[in-house]
């Protein structure tokens, strides 16, 4: 075979590309579209991308407020901490490390006034509960709650059970259920 023929043959996947496809499939699948990458490599990268994206979109809620009475007897009981939004925010404002030790990855139940309703840059629905002068508690909802969240109004009262995930200007809570 000539050198020219070898240059036109399809390439397999390099080790870097394999690692990239595994860790960041949607970015690296795009790289397999360049000339010279084998059809098998393209198929593998895109199948893996769809598997990863599919599993990310179907995350199951662990919120104890969503669990039915029949499920509660078979699974471990998760404690829900009752907290005031202002108290939760002040705890993070005063000492983030201590607040994380107390609240992070814990489910809390709180009632407060809705300050904002919207979507973030990843199209995730949220409600911000007033808790400080400028910032508050940003509560994220699953797609299944779109109907209930769309009926909310700024300034109205809301009671939620959600999982505290930490501080990023607002105190962030995930996996919320409206009570």
What does this structure look like?
With 179 residues, the protein is α/β, with parallel strands linked by helices. It folds into two domains: 3-57, no CATH class; 78-178, OB fold (Dihydrolipoamide Acetyltransferase, E2P), CATH 2.40.50. It is built from eight helices and six strands. It has helices at residues 3-8, 15-23, 25-31, 39-57, 69-74, 85-94, 96-103, 146-150; strands spanning 80-82, 107-119, 125-130, 136-141, 157-168, 170-178. Strands 2-3-4-6-5 form a five-stranded mixed β-barrel. Strand 2 (107-119) and strand 3 (125-130) form a beta hairpin. Helix 2 (15-23) runs antiparallel to helix 3 (25-31), helix 3 (25-31) packs antiparallel against helix 4 and helix 6 packs across helix 7. The longest helix is centred in the first third of the chain and has 19 residues, at 39-57. It starts with a helix and ends with a strand.
Tags for this entry?
single chain; 179 residues; alpha/beta; OB fold (Dihydrolipoamide Acetyltransferase, E2P); 5-stranded mixed β-barrel; 8 helices; 39% helix; 27% strand; elongated
Short structural description:
With about 180 residues, this protein is an alpha/beta fold.
């Amino acid at each position: 075979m000539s050198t020219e023929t070898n240059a036109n043959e399809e390439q397999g996947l390099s080790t870097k590309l394999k690692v990239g496809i595994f860790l960041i499939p949607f970015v690296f699948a795009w790289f397999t579209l360049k000339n010279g990458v084998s059809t098998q490599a393209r198929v593998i990268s895109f199948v893996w991308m769809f598997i990863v994206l599919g599993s990310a979109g179907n995350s199951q809620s662990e919120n104890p407020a969503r669990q039915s009475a029949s499920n509660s007897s078979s699974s471990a009981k998760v404690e829900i901490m009752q907290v005031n939004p202002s108290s939760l925010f002040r705890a993070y404002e005063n000492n983030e490390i201590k607040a994380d030790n107390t609240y992070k990855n814990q489910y809390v139940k709180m009632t407060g006034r809705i300050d904002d309703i919207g979507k973030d840059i990843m199209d995730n629905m949220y409600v911000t509960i007033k808790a400080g002068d400028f910032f508050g508690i940003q509560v994220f909802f699953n797609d299944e709650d779109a109907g209930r969240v769309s009926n909310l109004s700024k300034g109205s009262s809301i009671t939620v059970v959600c999982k505290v995930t930490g501080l990023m200007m607002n105190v962030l809570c995930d996996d919320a259920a409206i009570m």
